[in-house]
Design goal:
Blueprint: H1 16-28, E1 31-35, E2 38-41, H2 42-45, H3 49-68, H4 75-99, E3 107-108, H5 110-125, H6 135-140, E4 146-148, E5 155-157
Antiparallel strand pairs: 1-2, 1-3, 4-5
Length: about 170
């Protein structure tokens, strides 16, 4: 089994969050509930459910924006908060649905389940969100070149890239 270099710029696992967000966005427009042969999407039901769509969209846009900046680790907080918010809103709506007198006439459809699963995939994918390292640093790893702390100037070997300086605590 081939192991992937954790500091490589080729981390395909980082796309789990964007895939989950995309699933949530798409499934919002898929059938959420059915009744008497009719189906209604989250968009059809509307009202507070648009907050669920918005939280999916925030996760998706945060990924795209921070990926373009090569700072995916900064997207984590936005994605985690919006995904947890989306999950909580869905659970709240489900509890309200179950406590209504009409819940027996309706059945849950795949769109609502897909939206919820998309949030969980998005949340799980945040584990893989790491900043991309510049190619010149990646090429130095494994070589015996020296690097210096940008804040205090202490000398290190290239194998210490990504660690913290012993003198000042700056990230190398």
């Amino acid at each position: 089994m081939e192991t992937q270099n954790p500091i490589s710029n080729n981390n395909n696992s980082s796309y789990a969050s964007v895939i989950g967000s995309t699933i949530s966005v798409i499934c919002f427009f898929a059938p959420w509930i059915g009744c008497s042969g009719r189906e209604f999407s989250g968009a059809d039901i509307g009202n507070d459910l648009w907050l669920i769509f918005a939280s999916s969209l925030v996760s998706l846009l945060a990924f795209v924006f921070f990926k373009s900046q090569k700072k995916l680790s900064k997207a984590k907080v936005y994605i985690v908060v919006s995904s947890i918010l989306g999950i909580c809103l869905m659970l709240y709506e489900y509890i309200n649905f179950q406590s209504s007198k009409f819940h027996q006439a309706f059945e849950i459809k795949w769109g609502s389940i897909g939206t919820l699963l998309g949030f969980f995939v998005t949340l799980a994918g945040t584990v893989y969100l790491v900043d991309e390292m510049p190619k010149e640093i990646i090429s130095k790893i494994g070589s015996n070149e020296n690097i210096y702390c940008q804040q205090c100037g202490k000398k290190y070997t290239s194998e210490h890239i990504g660690e913290f300086c012993d003198e000042c605590g700056n990230k190398l």
